[in-house]
Amino acid sequence: MRTSILAANWKMQKTVSEAVRFLEAFLPLVADADAVEVVIAPPFTALGRCGEELEGSNVKLASQNVNNEEKGAFTGEIAPAMLRDVGCSYAIVGHSERRALYGETDAFIAKKAGALLAAGLLPIVCVGELLDERESNRTFDVIGRQLAGSLAEVPVERASEVVIAYEPVWAIGTGKTATPEIAQEVHAFIREKLGEAFGSAGKDMRIQYGGSVKPENVYDLMAKPDIDGALVGGASLDPDSFAKIVQFEKQGVAQ
Ligand code: PGA
């Protein structure tokens, strides 16, 4: 049984005081959400304070990025052990914005994922096709290549701890969610590839969907067999909205 994982990716948004205000409103709303895993990824500057606020709560902390090196002359970079130090359990790697805007390659993402596992943190590895790749029927090629490349340094015995986020780039921040059917089709393909790479551990790996997830569409997405969670940008910035996403089962009843 895979535990659903709902994660908030705040991107470059929220100061420390804004993050704290969010948590003060959000934590009571999700205090009884014990059947799912809830994760918040604030910007680096708010991690330490959020780590303190989350102590003893049922919500986990993630970073939005990490460097693969342990320490040294890497100006501007943050090491896995530094993230553990401030209370992170997870780190997002390979987000499409990092791939597109900062030139991150699958090989670099693979190193980050390997370094996170070695340091006792769990990677959320993002993959996703561009609009023109989908329109030219290259979705499965692209996703297959990104998975093979980005997971190359995940040891088989650790694979079940790794989370994959399928985020079609054309759905991120656009309001255009993939239909549950389109998402499930790709998730099933990802599940098949994980099985090829990691054997039976592939069945235990959680695959989140990301791209314009909102309270109104999360239930139908989560109802699909290979969708095990959501990585949420815009709709995670407001505590009520993200709490509704965490309580996705109630959204189904309401409709
Ligand atoms: P969005 O972002 O929910 O705003 O589309 C998702 C993401 O980029 O992780």
Labels describing this entry:
255 residues, eight-stranded parallel barrel, TIM Barrel, alpha/beta, 16% strand, binds 2-phosphoglycolic acid, 43% helix, 12 helices
Q: Can you give me a brief rundown of this structure?
A:
This protein is of the alpha/beta class and 255 residues long. It has twelve helices and eight strands.
Explain this structure to me?
This protein has 255 residues and is an alpha/beta fold. The chain has a single domain (5-254), classed as Alpha-Beta Barrel (TIM Barrel), CATH 3.20.20. It is 43% helix and 16% strand. The protein contains 12 helices and 8 strands. The chain has helices spanning 16-29, 44-54, 80-85, 96-101, 106-118, 131-135, 139-150, 180-198, 201-204, 218-222, 239-246, 248-254; strands spanning 5-9, 37-41, 59-63, 88-93, 122-127, 163-166, 206-210, 229-232. The protein has an 8-stranded parallel β-barrel with strand order 1-2-3-4-5-6-7-8, surrounded by 5 helices. α10 (218-222) links the parallel β7 and β8 (229-232). α1 packs across α11. The protein is globular. It starts with a strand and ends with a helix. Residues 9, 167, 172-173, 210-213, 231-235 line the site of 2-phosphoglycolic acid (PGA).
* SS-based class: alpha/beta
Strand order of the largest sheet: 1-2-3-4-5-6-7-8
Please report which band the strand proportion falls in: under 5%, 5-15%, 15-25%, 25-35%, 35-45% or over 45%.
15-25%
Shape descriptor: globular
The name CATH uses for the topology is: TIM Barrel
SSE string: EHEHEHEHHEHHEHHEHEHH
- Mean pLDDT comes to 97
The radius of gyration is: 17 Å
CATH homologous superfamily identity: Aldolase class I
CATH uppermost class: Alpha Beta
Number of strands: 8
- The overall number of domains is 1
